[in-house]
Batch of 2 targets.
Target 1
Amino acid sequence: MKKASIFILLFLCFSAFSQKIESFTTILNDKISIRALEIYDNKVWYSGTDSKFGFVDLKNPENQKQIKLSEKKLQFRTLAQDKKAFYAINIESPAEFFRIDKKDLSVINIYTDTLKTAFYDSFVYANEEMGLALSDPDKDHHMRLEMLLMSARQIYDFNETKTKDKNKFIKFNEGEAAFAASNTNIATYKTKFWVATGGKVSRIIKGDFGSLESDVYNTPFIQGESSQGIYSIDFYEDKFGIAVGGDYTKPEANVNNIATTNDGGKTWQVRASGKNAGYTTCVKIKPGSKGKEMISVGDKHISYSSDFGKTWTKISDEKNLYVCKWVDQHTVVFAGKDRIVKMKIK
């Protein structure tokens, strides 16, 4: 009887949330893999494989356009924007930094990184002037975080600035890097930023591009293998943060793959270990929820938390979606293998 009561309670909780889902609609079908999204002008913008870049109108999906950023078949897993343009960097060397004008979609190459180890995992805009692009470490394991000052068209290596321990470079451990899974292993708030790593070591690097100082914090996340660690982070202001990930070779594994912080990344508490839907590539805090509500997506699920990431409910078994983005409090877009979908919540 007790077990039946628990089952009924869980069913009612799931049903209560499910009733809030109004629709789940595919708005783009194409032969493409997409791991980076931006929202602008009531459109969802994307970059992906085969040098493809484009948009789909959220109100009228028939209004869409796609262009090629290069004649080469480049693979893009990054996308960022400021007021005037979008920016995308292809993975693998040579890594080309493309600027796409918002007015006419004209494309120019503003920088090329020819380092053999170049592999850009994420690219975000912290404000209207400052972009941050994260590459895998160089051969000496130095973290490579490029600071782009677009008004001056200048690019600086953050690691050539001072750090609190007076070392010139932030150094990764052997086998430590970042995942180019959803363009979300960098989070920013005002002048602060957080970088999540994975592999044999999974850590948080917290920096300030105002003071040009940084700290590195260990995490209790699953780590030790090249496929394990943090894949995505998001922060509400500068204290509360959520990190998700796991092991892409074992998507069903769900131990030590979700954690939260309440002190800006210094300490992390494992959440829902053994009680979540498994490997997760992207997490986004719901706008206006002050960190309480959030959505996440992995290869085999979409999940939702309404208690600051402590517990999670799987709300969909949709497969092959890798990245998510809130459009507003009632709309989320997802993208992955061959499609973009829009979910409406009542």
Target 2
Amino acid sequence: MTPRELVGTAEVPGGPPLRLFRRGADFMIVLERNELMSTRMSGSEVALGTMTCQRLAGRPAPRLLIGGYGMGFTLRAVLDLLGPEASVVVAELVPGIIGWARGPMASLTAGCLDDPRVTLETGDVADIIRRDRGCYDAILLDVDNGPDGLTRPANDGIYSTRGIEAAWRALRPGGILAVWSAAPDAPFARRLASAGFSVDEVRVKARDNGKGATHVIWFARRD
């Protein structure tokens, strides 16, 4: 097997550093011993974008907020489906991830960060959600391993009752909060419903060929 090559390290505010590895043509982002994401397993990240856009069909000039650029799979998925009048705000906490996107993974990025529909904000998506009330048709969150935070303790607040209520206020009527998770989380699903969202829990495969681990996406609609 081809050995992994360490490409770089990125500091995470309030958490341990991330490391980018390359094995042949594949990249993987690793936190300590946990592989957070890789180019081999992008199916559920793509589904987060495509399934959200399907639920927004017919909305003129939709405005989306994506929390967590990662490897850009979700961003590229929504850009492929949205029209020229749409706008997408991408919040990425870790500047090093954007450095990797524009550097060693530039061919994978494929210019999506320079799309005129995209605004990049370096910072905590939770701050943007609290700041921008009634601004978004959809908020897509993939900032950690799911509601059971792994990357840094502060991420837990995004998935708390208070964080969910802030997302409700940031959405327009009929807007969608879409949340990616590596595993089911019944208490989180109940918190979504208790906040007044209509919740659709969808299970998707990690790989785009329908194989691999099963991940979870919650689509919570503000009625």
